[in-house]
Amino acid sequence: MQANLELIVRSTEIDVNGHVNNAKYLEYLEWGREEWYEQAGLHYDVLLAMGVQTVTVNININYRKECRQGDRLTVATTPERAGRSSYVLKQEIVNEKGELCGDATVTCVTMDSNTRKSRELPPELRSQF
After folding, report:
1. I want to staple 93 with a disulfide (CB 3.0 to 4.6 A). Which of 17, 62, 101, 121 is the partner?
2. pLDDT at site 113
3. What is the spatial distance between Cα 104 and Cα 93, in angstroms, rounded to a whole number?
4. Is 43 helix (H, G, I), strand (E, B) or coil?
């Protein structure tokens, strides 16, 4: 399942160079992942009830094109692969012209909410891959 999140670049997201600050791209990606979890029915409370939490352990991002104030962006999040306790999401940020502005692979790990150690993916999460 691919989840799409639409957003508009705000003035507070612009840096001294007149474009979106690189750290904001990471925030956009985080918002996109949250949308993916929501659409998959895996809200934070649902995962917590399963005794797991998810943590981001690696992000590889490519900044392809600058984004500017007022740009309308879509953050697309797609499950790519799952391991025993980790999984990878592919994300893309595309502007309203269909131009790729950034793309990333994000590796997350499920951890036991009590022991704080990695734990096998619950079936409800694994089924998304």
Report:
1. 101
2. 95
3. 9
4. coil
Q: pLDDT at position 117, please?
A: 96
Tell me what the mean pLDDT of segment 95-102 comes to: 98
In the chain, the amino acid numbered 23 is A
Token pair for 104: 């990333």
- Encoded amino acid at 16, one letter: V
Residue in the structure block whose two tokens are 């900044």: 63
Instruction: Give how far the C-alpha of residue 55 lies from the chain's centroid of Cα atoms, to the nearest Å.
Output: 11
User: Which position has the token pair 């793309």?
Assistant: 103
The two most distant CA atoms of the chain are separated, in Å, by 46
Which residues 6+ apart lie within 8 Å of 10 measured at CB?
69
CA distance 92 to 47: 25
SS3 for 83?
Answer: coil
Q: What is d(CA 97, CA 66) in angstroms, rounded to the nearest whole number?
A: 13
The pLDDT, as a whole number, for residue 37 is: 97
Owner of token pair 């007022």:
70
Give me the active site residues, please: 15
